[in-house]
Hints:
Layout: H1 12-29, H2 38-51, H3 55-62, H4 66-81, H5 87-94, E1 99-108, E2 119-120, E3 125-134, E4 140-143, H6 153-159, H7 162-169, E5 172-174, E6 186-187, H8 197-221, H9 236-250
Parallel strand pairs: 1-5, 5-6
Antiparallel strand pairs: 1-3, 2-3, 3-4
Amino acid sequence: MLVYPSSMDLSSRTLRLLTGQLTAGRKKLGTRWRRLPVGRQALLALAHLRCGDTYAQLAAGFGIGIATVFRYIREAVEVLSTLAPTLAEAMKTIRTKAFVILDGTLLPIDRIAAHTPYYSGKHKRHGMNVQVLTGPFGRLLWASPAPPGSPHDLTAARQHGIIEALTESGLKRWADKAYQGAGGPVRVPFRGGRLKRWKRRHNSSHVKIRCPGEQAMATLKGWRLLRKLRCSTNRITDIVKAVLVLHHTSI
């Protein structure tokens, strides 16, 4: 197998954050020796999350076993996920914004047709549904846990308590057609093929305002692991939380 050096488009702050958290975790556990120093373990985990490198590729690149790679990545993801803000904590930041954009995305997974809870009729594929809150300038503020992808976006938002929290905040919020019927001041575009001129103008301005939300989705999918998840579905929520923490650190 050939091995070559590579690079990642991440700031050094992400490496320092993860290294510090892993160091604290090792001290708490009383770990005396590991195959990799803490800095190399952090680099390995970042390569997996950002670049989507497989366990076999990382094992060859770092000179360790595949089982060791799995343990190192799981430990790093669990450490990061504990730092992710809850919805209540995120709302403190969200209340300082002029408005917020609500949107949902499907994280693809490798499931067969028999796994109906994970199949999204909207996207015509299997995946996990993640609800995202974005600021006016496209900054990713919060991401929800990742349940199976079959529920509608509005249903998922209600299950996470997002609609209720936004209603209490009194903020203006913008969303796409999937959130029609949310109630409160949730602004959605008009539906229908033949609309009056003023409704078409409203939809055009609505798209321009909601555009930064699409930028946040692109930022989320910039972490290549999330483009096709092949791990246990029980771990995906922690992975999303870990990515959110690293994203906030990098900016």
